[in-house]
Amino acid sequence: MSYNIGLSGLRSTNQALNVISQNIANVSTAGFKAARAEYAALYAGGEPGGVEVAQVSQDFSKDGSKEFTGRSLDLAISGQGFFMVKNAQGQTAYTRAGTFNKDASNFIVGAGGEKLQGYGVDANGALLTGVVTDLKISASNLAAKASTRLDFKANLRADAAVPATTPFDPADANSFNYSYTSSVYDSLGTEHTVTQYFVKTGANTWDSNYYVDGAATGVTQAVNFNTDGTLAAPTTPVVLNMTPAGADPIALDVSYTGTTQYAADFSASYDADGYSSGELAGVRVDDDGSVFAVFTNGKDLLQGKVALANFSNPNGLAKGDNTSWTATFSSGNAVIGDPGAGGLGTLTAGAYEGSNVDLTGELVNLMTAQRNYQANAKSISTADKMTQVLFSSW
């Protein structure tokens, strides 16, 4: 019986050595989770029967170190959750290895070609939540978009003097108080300038004169303020009709919402829609998993959103290739959600999660396993010598 007990110890220790060796071999593998062999004593009718490896568990509770690379599609999860990927056979796997790239078809793929899963967008760029699909980056250029609005916001100095020179002349700086130029675009993506010249006409009253590309539009808008410095008029947008050569006509709505008159220096800002055409320059992933295509004109378009999955029992997952796992009955069904929501971890772009193996600890475990192996071998050797003594006494 002692032979079998010692033999079970050798077998179990050999399994533990395999686990330790696997940990050490993957100390630099992205998304790898350290495993350990867990032993259980064997008894038969109350008599000792040796030992066995009851299970090999993995440490999903400890994050690996973040390896910062600066690559836009490298993603690291901090906390719970897994990336969802789909292989060529359509099978879904789960991984912590966030080293992603674009393939020849512009799908976001892992090191083994598995396609990253997430929420896609419709033809208008709206996110389709609830439908998980292959994430893909559009390779087409961004077409130009004509401007339709210009939201202008400024502070006109309350104690400014009425210009002594009249009438208003854009070439004479003494005939106006302030000027500000904004950029808008036509349907061909050509940039046009809209310059506003502000002329104070009296207490709390101003005139705004509009010029497009240096030419007068003939539009003058009275801008009036209340005694507390807030805007009194206009309360609706001023419409500028533009007819750029070779492009569609533009009806530009100029809004003054938020404009004030206080005894402070002149300041102004604007926000306009519309842009010139652009080529794909790169990809950006935000912390919430949103994936954007970035274009040379400074604009970006939403391409989708990375979705994460979690399980009630991650140790019930079945191990697969390429540092991935598959769902089983023991793991339970995947709970899918946005990064940072519902107990799921957060994302860090420009980095990937390294292995969580503690190399120093594994080397100590290796020495311990070696001693255990020697001790079990010694017990077999001792039992053999005792048997030899028994035989030699006959």
UniProtKB/TrEMBL annotation:
<keyword id="KW-0975">Bacterial flagellum</keyword>
<dbReference type="Pfam" id="PF07559">
    <property type="entry name" value="FlgE_D2"/>
</dbReference>
<dbReference type="InterPro" id="IPR020013">
    <property type="entry name" value="Flagellar_FlgE/F/G"/>
</dbReference>
<feature type="domain" description="Flagellar hook protein FlgE/F/G-like D1">
    <location>
        <begin position="76"/>
        <end position="122"/>
    </location>
</feature>
<protein>
    <recommendedName>
        <fullName>Flagellar hook protein FlgE</fullName>
    </recommendedName>
</protein>
<dbReference type="Pfam" id="PF22692">
    <property type="entry name" value="LlgE_F_G_D1"/>
</dbReference>
<dbReference type="GO" id="GO:0005829">
    <property type="term" value="C:cytosol"/>
</dbReference>
<dbReference type="InterPro" id="IPR010930">
    <property type="entry name" value="Flg_bb/hook_C_dom"/>
</dbReference>
<keyword id="KW-0282">Flagellum</keyword>
<comment type="function">
    <text>A flexible structure which links the flagellar filament to the drive apparatus in the basal body.</text>
</comment>
<dbReference type="Pfam" id="PF06429">
    <property type="entry name" value="Flg_bbr_C"/>
</dbReference>
<dbReference type="GO" id="GO:0009424">
    <property type="term" value="C:bacterial-type flagellum hook"/>
</dbReference>
<keyword id="KW-0969">Cilium</keyword>
<dbReference type="InterPro" id="IPR001444">
    <property type="entry name" value="Flag_bb_rod_N"/>
</dbReference>
<dbReference type="InterPro" id="IPR011491">
    <property type="entry name" value="FlgE_D2"/>
</dbReference>
<feature type="domain" description="Flagellar basal body rod protein N-terminal">
    <location>
        <begin position="4"/>
        <end position="33"/>
    </location>
</feature>
<dbReference type="GO" id="GO:0009425">
    <property type="term" value="C:bacterial-type flagellum basal body"/>
</dbReference>
<dbReference type="InterPro" id="IPR037925">
    <property type="entry name" value="FlgE/F/G-like"/>
</dbReference>
<feature type="domain" description="Flagellar hook protein FlgE D2">
    <location>
        <begin position="155"/>
        <end position="275"/>
    </location>
</feature>
<dbReference type="Pfam" id="PF00460">
    <property type="entry name" value="Flg_bb_rod"/>
</dbReference>
<comment type="similarity">
    <text>Belongs to the flagella basal body rod proteins family.</text>
</comment>
<dbReference type="InterPro" id="IPR053967">
    <property type="entry name" value="LlgE_F_G-like_D1"/>
</dbReference>
<keyword id="KW-0966">Cell projection</keyword>
<feature type="domain" description="Flagellar basal-body/hook protein C-terminal">
    <location>
        <begin position="349"/>
        <end position="390"/>
    </location>
</feature>
<dbReference type="GO" id="GO:0071978">
    <property type="term" value="P:bacterial-type flagellum-dependent swarming motility"/>
</dbReference>
<dbReference type="InterPro" id="IPR037058">
    <property type="entry name" value="Falgellar_hook_FlgE_sf"/>
</dbReference>
